[in-house]
Fold this sequence. Notes:
Number of helices: 9
Distance between the termini: 44 Å
Low-confidence stretches: none
Bound molecules: NADP nicotinamide-adenine-dinucleotide phosphate
Number of strands: 7
Radius of gyration: 17 Å
Order of helices and strands: EHEHEHEHEHHEHHHE
Helix content: 40-55%
Amino acid sequence: xxxxxxxxxxxxxxxxxxxxxxxxxxxxxxxxxxxxxxxxxxxxxxxxxxxxxxxxxxxxxxxxxxxxxxxxxxxxxxxxxxxxxxxxxxxxxxxxxxxxxxxxxxxxxxxxxxxxxxxxxxxxxxxxxxxxxxxxxxxxxxxxxxxxxxxxxxxxxxxxxxxxxxxxxxxxxxxxxxxxxxxxxxxxxxxxxxxxxxxxxxxxxxxxxxxxxxxxxxxxxxxxxxxxxxxxxxxxxxxxxxx
Length: 243
Ligand code: NAP
């Protein structure tokens, strides 16, 4: 398989924000390669993407899985756009947080994402073109009780975004992050109604975000028009945090 259109890779594209990003990038003219953690997720994602895309399994916390994903993508082409969307939570108050809960979140959200970016850098640098877009979170700036691991991973992702932007600017590769606020997906569905209502009361635009709100921001950062934007954190949060 070869892609005649520019290639966009979206991790964690099987549902939620990632799926919205994947389909929006397709509509914007990209051939999209998405990832899911399971074969059944890959099959569903391939159905959703149709002929202008495909999908492979990826577990960012697993080095071998990442290498195999990179090999499958590279057989198709060099990504013009890499959207690092996959992420997990494993919430607990700090005094109860187990090493495993800390490590899983950091391994997946931060270390795994770095490893994936690094794997594609040679090709992107050779192509002298690239758009790397990392999906962070409003809590990287605000903090959130019960999410020390997740907040640390997303704050790390933002620091990494700025450093990479400085390293790669001379190769015409931009590196930015989108920091979503509260978006209605499986991830936030785990919260209690009380937690959801308390959050809603703090959002000036008086609604939860939708996955499409984040996809629009990603499509902008992937576009030709965003060619002079790099090292930025684009907040899409309904005003929840105005940093
Ligand atoms: P979601 O509905 O929970 O989906 C998570 C995606 O990541 C799925 O595609 C999942 O694949 C994939 N994934 C899970 N573990 C993985 C691993 N170890 N390796 C690779 N992929 C893995 O999440 P979401 O709400 O759409 O969030 C997407 C991104 O936005 C995340 O980075 C999240 O931190 C960020 N974010 C979300 C919100 C929000 O309010 N929802 C707010 C701020 C930031 P499977 O389907 O195979 O499990």
